[in-house]
Amino acid sequence: MTVVLDHDPAEQQLKKAGSEPWQGLPSIEDFLGEDGALRNVIQYGNRHEETFTFSVPDDYFERQAALEQHQPKLPLNYTAEISLYAALFEAQSHKVVLAGFRTIQLQVRPSSSYINFLPAIYQASDVTSRFLAIIEQAFDPTLQTIDNLWAYLDPLTAPEALLPFLASWVAWPLDPRWSIPEQRRLLRRAVELYRWRGTRYGLRLYLHLYTDLPLDDDTTTESQKHISVVENHQTGLVMGDVKFAQTPMLGGGRPFHFSVTLRSDRPRSLDESCLRTIIDQVKPAFCTYDLAVVALSEAQGEG
Questions:
Q1: Does residue 27 fall inside a structural domain?
Q2: Average of per-residue pLDDT across 247-273
């Protein structure tokens, strides 16, 4: 707001407020700072700009408590008056006079971004602004859904009721024995699990996502890994230098067999039947396996 003093303050006071101070005038001390010096001095004929901010509660239009019996509608238009006072410091006395005032209209309206897309001549219309605010509020829930559509397509953030639909996209069977966090993790990595199916890494990754056990890297020995998959390589009795299609051998252990060991600080919380279902889904059909779930403290003691 811009205030211009283009007349002598004493003249302005005589024309509008009379020569005598009236109740409600500020005192002379209001014009002095803590050090006794004048503050906010506007020289005669100069221009000074000041910004005033008015705010209403965020729930102003929805707050039913604001409606009373004698006030069936929320007030949307307010009248305010800004007065400019001047302090006259004379030799014998000091007094405060009214230099001028201005009446302003304050209009409470819901914010609307649609009005910014119209030409300036239409932006000045209050009716147009209020009409567009109604349309914007009607479409706002739909726009917010579109802005957050990615969250509905991410298994980690999608609503629980939408998980079966997302599972059908990747042909992933949902096991009722899985908890909701487990289902979310598995769906998020479903395509990756398909890519590694039938491999040692794919089995360890699947068990990691289901059990939430750490997926240790190759620098950790198999006896210390939380999820260990070991193939049984044993050399049998070789029959000298006899050569056929393959080197004949007696014994030699169990071919196409591997051992799975899970080391957890809560081994009883793991469902063994579900673990076997996972292994059966991932392993090659002709392979056999052994499954062991041990306490982490026992595994560390053996190591």
A1: yes
A2: 79
